[in-house]
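Researcher: I'm preparing a figure for a lab meeting and need a structural model of a single chain. I don't have an experimental structure, so a prediction will have to do for now. The sequence is pasted below. Please return the structure as tokens so I can convert it later.
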Amino acid sequence: MFATRRKAAVAVALGVGAVTFTAAPASAHGTMGDPVSRVAQCYAENPESPKSAACKAAVSAGGTQALYDWNGIRIGDANGQHQALIPDGRLCSANNDEFKGLDLARADWPATNVGSGSYTFKYRVTAPHKGTFKVYLTKAGYDPAKPPAWADLDLDHPVATATDPVATGGFYTFSGTLPERTGRQLLYAVWQRSDSPEAFYSCSDVDFGGGSTSTSTGTGTTTSASPAPTASSPTDEQIAAGADKSTIEHHGHGDDDAGTPAEPSSPPANAPAAAGSSETVLAETGGSGTTPCLAVGGAAALALGSGALFMSVRRRAHRR
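Model: Understood. Here is the structure written out token by token.
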């Protein structure tokens, strides 16, 4: 009888822990803030009523949740195998159906105006990790009205590379150099963690000027002198306002621990960050630590209760 009760108490303790941590939301870690990524732009416009034709089409194709989950374009087990895992035409979504609206082949995505020469890139981060950023630019002759393919990117000459930059003010900031281009181009950012196989992806539309603007009409493209809307990044207030509609933690792990496991491509939700590890990032991004703290506190309380139950059963068995 004692053995049976002991097993039951242990099972309760283990079961409670599993349920509590599975209920926590998945972690994710950011997107390019400058030049503004497609997902950041559409989130800034308001997922429920986007202003640009491109973002309206993205919502029509993939729904609003992808925009609230703006920091979640990732592959948990990428391990550097980006081209093998992401097919042509699916670069901006990282082959994730939730974000398929970002893959739409349109020449009217809101764009950041840039020029050749040095450029300071800013990547909005919601959970810092060790790793390397590589930013690629499309080749001369890129047609923005066609789905972007790996062959469109100048993979041999990344315009920026940064390893383990320090996050400040909610952003990783690093320098690069943009080559001579004209018209609309696409910047593709890959952040590969070095402490796990996980990687993150983003597409940023840029305009070097001096080229005609092709506008997608749904039945083809037309050329006009009118530029696409200028991109704008979401504010801290906008990010905070939409955080409760996100299925993604807005502070993630918040550590540089090489032992932090990667989230699998289709994961059960992950455990929240260790206490105290995310306070700086929370302050920078406007996220809230209330839910994960409650989850940890609840798990601890239930575990303690289960331990007390175990000791009580053991004492009664000993008296008998």
